[in-house]
Amino acid sequence: MRRITDEALLAYRQNLINEEKSNATLKKYLTDLENFRKWICGADLDKNSVLRYI
Question: If we measure between CA atoms, which residue out of 35, 39, 46 comes closest to residue 3?
């Protein structure tokens, strides 16, 4: 099963920081991911769930 975990979000945030993304970009990207994670409600992460969300 693939899930969006807190650890994955922290790693992604650190990667964005390492790439020197702006604070506004960090906030936008992470907010988008949090909203998606809430929408998916812990279900498996797959291509179809992403397409439904979009």
Answer: 46
